[in-house]
Amino acid sequence: MQVLRSFNASLLTPFDIRSLARALFPPVEYDFFESKWTQLAGRTVERNTTLGPGDPRRMVNIDMLMGTGNYTRAEGQAGYEPLVQEQCQQTGMAALVQTLQLATPQQPFATIVQGVDEPFLCFAGRLTAAVEKQVSDPAARKLMIQSVAQGNCNAVCKRIIEALPGEPSMSDMVGACAKISPSSQEVLAVHTAVQPAVATIVQPTVATAVQPAVPAAVQPAVAAAVQPAWVVPQGVQQQQWGAQARKKQRKAQKPTAVLFYCARCGRPNHAANACKATVHVNAESVVIDSDKIHKVPLDAFGPLGDGMSAFLMGRSSATIQGIIVHLGLIDADFSGQIHAMVSTPTPPLTIPKGTRIAQLVPFKSSVSRTEDRSRGDGGFGSTGPPQVRWTAVLTKDLPETLCTVSMVGATPSEIHLRGLLDTGADVSILSLAAWPPQWPLTLAQTSISGLGGTKQCYVSQNPVAITNPEGQTAIIWPHVTEIPQNLWGRDVLAAWGVRLGTDF
Predict the structure, then answer these.
(1) CA-derived radius of gyration, the chain
(2) Is 172 a catalytic residue?
(3) Which among 193, 293, 310, 311 could bridge 360 via Cys, Cβ 3.0 to 4.6 Å?
(4) Mean pLDDT to the nearest integer, 222-248
(5) Active-site option among 306, 333, 372, 422
């Protein structure tokens, strides 16, 4: 992985990546690499269709990303636009890394333990290689290596690391533990091994003391005679002994040695995906000036790791201060800064930076994914079609909405217009003053009535997309004339799926 990171720091064309793959993989693994590269390139091309018309990546195809077809020459690949070159390198290196990870057997990094006579540097190398393959975030990777190295090193190194001041880095640990000689490790191993034997030798042998011979017929009577008065009856004694034995057995089953530490809470001997601890998160400085819900940034970031999701809920200490944190869900594939939905019944309210207002309660989802789609940093929204539609209560005020009006290939490519929702208009009519002069118009063949008189009316020569705030789009050829107010007519409202009713 270190070698690949060194290569990735330089500009690599698809020709370079393919040459590197041929040197790394045998035929079967190379075929898998080509298949994975094609799959990732197809997804990238599909995502590029959503980019703006001026973005050079919008015209990229699979052959360009992979350097195949008409794009096999390395000189031509080096002349790509910088954004296209970056996308080619990201796609190819992702396929290379994924193939390399599948081709290499992976041992869970939490199970990597330093041997008694193993140098700490060798142990750190094995641990680092495993963490790099299983943890993608660089910051989390560094903390994970440091935490597991302290917990899974042998007893000699652990004593040395605990004696280091502050929070020692991996370099500090390696430097300190490199001074240990093999003889000291062997002495400690012998000491640890002989401790149980010594304890057995010095244990008193009371159970084998010489007992006087007593005839079998009188044994019960003698036993009753010599029994002290404070001895409890046999039935009760057996119950107590049974309870004590079970308690000792449960205590003995608990691990006494620290095998590894949890990556979430830092406590020993349980994995992060089995951790039941909550994680407290602090707010950034914010002023809540109304009783509406506000997005408050927290000092926590996703993904949480190990495929964990989490509920975001408020703390009682925040609620008693009038800070209401509404319940939220952090998906396992969310990446970016985590925000809380906060409101207060008594505005204005200032939340100083570092105030502990919420907590994350992690859990492992048992529902399989329906499709291979990552949320990314798209919080507070839906990755599918909208589930909550726009609803307005009719009042004396005009029902207006701000929409995005766009025309492909025009300059400017889009504008934002506020218009009146007019269910009485057959077609949408835009104000001539708001219409960009560069967008072509033609005289309308039909007249429009209902505008307070006869006016010269035009129609757009090219189709125009009208997108509402919910992301719903209508493709129309709008009419344009001299009116003071833009009108979104039934041609747009019907395409948006607007319906009138009283049962909302």
Answers:
(1) 36
(2) no
(3) 310
(4) 46
(5) 422
Question: Phi-psi region for residue 450, left (φ > 0), alpha (ψ -120 to 50) or beta?
Answer: left
Contact call for residues 306 and 328 (beta carbons, < 8 A): no
- Domain 2-103 belongs in CATH node 1.10.375.10: yes
Tokens (6 digits) for 35: 């298949």
Tokens read off for 466: 């009208």
**Three-class HEC string of 33-88:** HHHHHHHHHHHHHHHHCCCCCCCHHHHCCHHHHHCCHHHCCHHHHHCCCHHHHHHH
Residue 175, helix vs strand vs coil? helix
Structure tokens at 203: 């244990």
CB 151 within 8 A of CB 259: yes
Every domain of the chain and the residues it spans: 2-103, 278-364, 400-496
Q: What φ, ψ does residue 92 adopt, rounded to 5°?
A: -65, -45
Q: What's at 383, amino acid-wise?
A: T
Give domain 400-496's CATH superfamily.
Acid Proteases (2.40.70.10)
316-365 tens-digit pLDDT: 888 888 899 999 888 888 888 899 999 998 888 888 888 888 998 888 87
Between the two ends of the chain, the Cα-to-Cα distance in Å is 57
CATH of 278-364, one of 3.40.50.720, 3.30.300.30, 2.70.40.10, 1.20.140.10: 2.70.40.10
